[in-house]
């Protein structure tokens, strides 16, 4: 299926080369405070023990790659992650375990291990602890799932626009759902206030001054996915990585971990965001303290974020080569193309936020100025992160024209 974006969508696609990027150097030791091989190894050793753990597939979409004019596409397909539909399961649930382990250690007066908490050794203590989070979908589902697995209470705060399917997915994991009038920021405020009033523990995927430990753990959890990719690539290095971003945690785990692995010869890294919420692109232009005010919600719900993760920025600023913002109009055609499949490529069920990297890649190949600017051509092997499956089946069907296939 040939994808041809409209000229409006192509001209709305924005690209910025990051002048602060450091190329040709090994991963700086100072950044180990954000993403480090040590923290990745701890997360990997723990998460590999979880009952439902299984690596997700890395698809080669070589027919599609040929059609758009590049050498190959590797698509990491997170649709099947823990039966929760997105990579977020590696972060939110791991944060819950991390937070519980720290709090239980405090309460029993000795250092306990994540394995002990997971095994239920402290289940009476865990039952007296409540974790809370504000979310627009995937993160809350992952936190709720982690809380159920590790035996603590959980309340998830959602704003007025969060779809019923995404709320049901949270409640299916036994969490209490709290609907808040207003937008995402209102739900964050309500969550923070009630947590402070009741001694509950906030489990957020984004960092801010004074709140770094749990987002750091989430990023370590996401690197488990990156390790799987490296193993499946079997020695082949991508030339480019296109990774989508909300607050930047996923991109930091992907690019940071690949940088620790490949060193000075790392691939070229591009961050992709919706034009409605380009908070990292904005940080590159106006500085990391500047908040992007969202005027309209993007269809890419997981990427609709106005505030960057401050911890993530420490890695992203020196490591991202290109920032790209894409309009919402590019998303449905790419979801349909993946659902249909190209030639002998596998068919892929990909949600709205999952296809952002591919949409940006295609837009760059269809813009005469961008492919050469980013050194994209027939020799390029591009890694994409298919960060979710059909996490909202109704929205998926409305965009693709058929329900998600059971692949
Ligand atoms: C499916 C999906 N992809 C990508 C992202 C972006 O992740 P981050 O906010 O860590 O940048 C999210 C965030 O919720 C998501 O749900």
Provide an overview of this structure.
The model has no long low-confidence stretch (mean pLDDT 96). The chain starts with 6 loop residues before the first helix and ends in a 7-residue tail after the last helix. Strand 4, helix 7 and strand 5 (153-159) form a beta-alpha-beta unit. It is 43% helix and 14% strand. With 407 residues, it is an alpha/beta fold. The protein folds into two domains: 7-87 and 216-400, Rossmann fold (3-Layer(aba) Sandwich), CATH 3.40.50.1100; 89-204, 3-Layer(aba) Sandwich (Rossmann fold), CATH 3.40.50.1100. It has helices at residues 7-12, 37-47, 62-68, 89-108, 114-119, 123-127, 138-150, 164-171, 184-198, 213-233, 249-262, 279-286, 310-319, 331-340, 356-366, 370-373, 393-400; strands at 14-17, 58-60, 72-77, 130-135, 153-159, 176-180, 201-202, 240-244, 268-274, 322-326, 381-386. The longest helix is centred in the middle third of the chain and has 21 residues, at 213-233. The strands form two sheets. It has a seven-stranded mixed beta sheet, sandwiched between helices. A four-stranded parallel beta sheet has the order 6-5-4-7, sandwiched between helices. The protein binds pyridoxal-5'-phosphate. The site of pyridoxal-5'-phosphate has 20 residues, from helix 7 and helix 11.
């Amino acid at each position: 299926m040939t994808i041809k974006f409209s000229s409006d969508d192509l001209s709305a696609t924005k690209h910025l080369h990051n002048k602060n990027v450091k190329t040709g150097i090994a991963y700086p030791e100072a950044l180990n405070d954000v993403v480090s091989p040590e923290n990745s190894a701890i997360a990997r050793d723990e998460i590999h023990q979880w009952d439902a753990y299984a690596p997700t597939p890395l698809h080669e979409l070589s027919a599609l790659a040929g059609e758009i004019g590049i050498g190959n596409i590797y698509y990491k397909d997170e649709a099947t992650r823990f039966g929760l539909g997105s990579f977020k399961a590696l972060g939110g649930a791991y944060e819950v375990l991390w937070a519980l382990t720290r709090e239980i250690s405090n309460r029993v007066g000795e250092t306990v291990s994540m394995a002990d908490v997971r095994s239920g050794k402290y289940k009476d203590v865990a039952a007296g602890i409540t974790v809370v989070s504000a979310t627009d979908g995937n993160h809350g589902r992952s936190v709720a799932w982690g809380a159920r697995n590790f035996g603590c209470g959980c309340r998830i705060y959602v704003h007025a626009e969060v779809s019923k399917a995404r709320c049901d997915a949270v409640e299916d994991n036994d969490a209490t759902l709290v609907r808040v009038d207003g937008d995402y920021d209102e739900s964050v405020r309500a969550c923070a206030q009630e947590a402070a009033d009741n001694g509950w523990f906030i489990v957020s995927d984004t960092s801010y001054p004074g709140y770094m430990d749990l987002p750091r753990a989430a990023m370590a959890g996401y690197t488990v996915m990156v390790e799987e990719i490296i193993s499946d690539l079997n020695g082949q290095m991508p030339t480019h990585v296109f990774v989508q971003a909300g607050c930047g945690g996923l991109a930091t785990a992907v690019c940071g971990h690949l940088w620790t692995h490949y060193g000075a010869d790392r691939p070229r890294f591009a961050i992709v965001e919706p034009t409605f919420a380009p908070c990292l692109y904005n940080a590159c232009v106006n500085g990391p303290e500047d908040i992007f005010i969202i005027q309209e919600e993007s269809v890419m719900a997981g990427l609709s974020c106005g505030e960057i993760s401050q911890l993530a920025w420490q890695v992203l600023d020196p490591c991202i080569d290109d920032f790209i913002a894409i309009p919402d109009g590019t998303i449905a055609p790419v979801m349909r193309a993946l659902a249909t499949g190209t030639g002998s490529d596998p068919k892929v069920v990909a949600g709205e936020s999952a296809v952002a990297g591919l949409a940006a890649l295609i837009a760059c190949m269809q813009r005469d100025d961008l492919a050469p600017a980013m050194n994209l051509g027939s020799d390029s092997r591009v890694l994409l992160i298919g960060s979710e499956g059909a996490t909202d089946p109704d929205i998926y069907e409305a965009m693709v024209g058929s329900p998600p296939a059971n692949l």
